Amino acid sequence: MNATIDLMKAHRSIRKFSDREVDEKTLKAIVAAAQCAATSHFVQAYTVIRVGDREKRKAIADLAGPQVWVEQAPVFLVFCADLNRLESACRLHDTTMEKGWAEQFVTATVDTALLAQNVLLAAESEGLGGVFIGGIRNDPQTVCDLLKIPDQVYPVFGMCLGYPAHDPPPKPRLPVEAVLFDDRYPQEHDLAMLDEYDRVTNYYYLNRNSNLRDETWTAQMADFMGKVIRPHMKEFLEKKGFFLK
């Protein structure tokens, strides 16, 4: 349809990178462009930490999986939902910031996700590739300790960036008819459509370049959603000053 939509539809996760470095000017231009993402009430409730220290990279890679690409990528970023800066703004005006509200948590998390998606899209427009690393939430307190992340800030996810050294095919998404509806939520989901999507995803998994497996989307989701994932997150967020009210 146009170059932007073509770029978005060509997205795939990159976990193998060439030795080519990402220069400082390019990285800063990518982040500056990403900051133009929408932000609720203009709060810009995010901070990005570039992790260059090899020992910290190794520790984060291990707790995240292990995921060796966290160590190997030319750039590794940690995206933080950040209310700490806003508290500083309140102090400049002798105002006490309200803390611990669920809406603040949602606002900061959404702001951070919007920024990060823009970072990856801008990076892809420059010929880079990357992958989100949600695995840092396996042990978010250790990440906070390593990166000196204070209260009112939490690490949402990481991102590896660099010039791709492989070319995996894009992973097929649900058909738009399964996610776009008019005026109301559907009374029931189209199981025939999900069954067809299972055939599409199964073909993808059986024919991709690496990590071949005989799997479908619904079976994968049933397995994932049938488990308790990261049960420590609520207690961790409360300790960081989030989600108390």
TrEMBL record:
Domain of life: Bacteria
Protein name as annotated: NADPH-dependent oxidoreductase
InterPro entries linked: Flavin_OxRdtase_Frp (IPR016446), Nitroreductase (IPR029479), Nitroreductase-like (IPR000415)
Residue ranges of every copy of the Nitroreductase domain listed in the record: 9-163
A Gene Ontology molecular function term of the record: oxidoreductase activity
Record has DNA-binding as a keyword: no
Family named by the database record: Belongs to the flavin oxidoreductase frp family.
Keywords, sorted A to Z: Flavoprotein, FMN, NADP, Oxidoreductase
